[in-house]
Amino acid sequence: MTEILRPYLLTFIPIFVAVDAIGNIPIFVSLVEGLNRKQKHKIIIDSVTTATAMAILFMLVGKWVLRILNITISDFQIAGGLLLFMISVRLLLPGAQKSIIGNSHDKDMGVFPLGTPLITGPAVLTTTIIMLDSFGPLPTFVSLVLNMLFVWITLAKADLIMRLFGQAGTRAFSKVMYILLAAIAVMMVRYGLTGVLAK
To answer: Is the pLDDT assigned to residue 174 strictly greater than 90?
Structure first.
């Protein structure tokens, strides 16, 4: 039983760290401030739908695109790991997320910046394609859908979570996630280098 669940757990955790559902809550709350319940619900649906569709689409065609460009998985692991590391370091800096979202406050904010790049950005896309190669399509797809379901729940209950953890608590959780993301990035580079040197 443990062996059956192992690939699902090993794909869920990196995607969970990359998505950073808890860390995105303060940004979501600030973006939807002043909107009514119906408008907030629409933005949540738009953002989760956009994020899920982008991630699944990349999961389906990502390896095909890499093959056309003659990029090996080892190459992608090294490049993706370096990219993830830079993203995690950048997000650890004060005010980094604010610079990503700017002052977006329009009707399409569920698509941009929430759906992409905040929920499904380079970190999620890179992690998804590497998990796909490492553990196969089913564990990756299930873990991706479960993570998006978790995002939907956290956004729907954002006000409650903010009251429980507070802004400082959610920020602290987010910082821990970014450190874990940096560690996963280093692991990806290590696997990529091992693959290149083994040839």
So the answer is: no
Q: Report the C-alpha gap between 63 and 73 in whole angstroms.
A: 8
Supply the pLDDT for residue 62.
86
Burial class (CB in 10 A: 0-12, 13-18, 19+), 88: buried
For 163, phi then psi, to 5°, come to -70, -35
Spatial contact of 26 and 190, defined as CB atoms under 8 Å apart? no
CB neighbour burial string for 125-142, b if at least 16 within 10 angstroms, e if fewer:
bbbbbbbbbbbeeebbbe
Of all residues in the chain, what percent are helix, strand and coil, respectively (each to 5)? Answer: 85, 0, 15
Task: Answer left, alpha or beta for residue 104, where phi above 0 means left and psi between -120 and 50 means alpha.
Answer: beta
| 8-state DSSP, 177 | H
Phi-psi bin for 20: left (phi > 0), alpha (psi -120 to 50), beta? left
CA 32 from centre of chain: 20
Q: Who wins on pLDDT, 117 or 144?
A: 144
Reported confidence tier of residue 157, pLDDT bands at 50, 70, 90 = very high
Q: What are the structural domain ranges in the chain?
A: 36-198
Residue 191 has pLDDT above 70, yes or no: yes
Q: Are 178 and 91 in contact (CB under 8 A)?
A: yes
Q: Report pTM.
A: 0.78
